[in-house]
Amino acid sequence: MEAFILQHEPIIRLAFFLGIFGAVAIGEIILPRRQLTQSKKHRWFANVGIVIIDALVLRLLFPAAAVGSALLASERGWGFFNNANVPYWIAVASSVVFLDFVIYLQHVMFHAVPVFWRLHMMHHADLDFDVTTGTRFHPIEIVLSMVIKISMVTLIGAPALAVIIFEVLLNGTAMFNHSNISVPLGLDKILRLFVVTPDMHRVHHSVFPTETNSNYGFNLPWWDRLMGTYKPQPRLGHIDMTIGLNQFRDPSRLTLLGILWLPFGGKPGNYPINSRGGSGE
């Protein structure tokens, strides 16, 4: 099975991406949580355009990506799991959980360090919250994220299968938890014990810094509770809350070229954790 997955990795990734994207997009039409405030056509052109640019940049700079690093580490005996006598399935499961925690810490770092926040605020500047928001990250942030991921994969000697599972899960759950799908409150309460739900993550996209600097998890919801960064609900409720950042409210500035330039020409506002207003209103 592992050999089959490695052999057909690009097709498997694309199939999961398109399948989940399509299912979530349809779900947003059938059961919308909020009424969108911006032109969907213009937002989607910018957000999907970013996905294409990110994919091209990663393919150019990291042809083998994190999976290639895992295979190289295995071949050369690098990392913990390539030198520890543990069952393969434990190495796979532990690697997936560990990498998810790393992504949580990375996310916090991008809110804490002002220069990193400048990159990450492109993601938060989206004035609506739907499936495409989950794929909207600045190319430089994507490159830095890949460097961190490759480093951690090599450090722990993560099996290549674990890396594929982690990346497919992360990509899929990011689209789900950024979706505009209405999940019944009772089901949401159960789901957020195991996965980050749209209502849980939507709090993170509030204009209030105290809410923006909470609920950092993308996949597993446990880290926010363990690290004290969990907020169950937005103070104004999901229908009345405002999505985005206070300093970016003009849709005409949030074109594809505009959001690519955002880190260099936009103001960071009071959102970085260690800024004077980062823990305020």
From TrEMBL:
Biological process, per Gene Ontology: lipid biosynthetic process
Gene Ontology molecular function, alphabetical: iron ion binding; oxidoreductase activity
Record bears the keyword Transmembrane helix: yes
Membrane-spanning parts: 12-32, 44-66, 86-105, 146-170
Localization per Swiss-Prot or TrEMBL: Membrane
Domain (Fatty acid hydroxylase): residue spans on this chain: 95-229
GO cellular component: membrane
Principal location: membrane
Keywords: Membrane, Transmembrane, Transmembrane helix
InterPro entries registered for this protein in UniProt: Fatty_acid_hydroxylase, Sterol_Desaturase_Related
PANTHER family xrefs: STEROL DESATURASE
Name of the protein: Sterol desaturase
Lineage: Bacteria, Pseudomonadati, Thermodesulfobacteriota, Desulfomonilia, Desulfomonilales
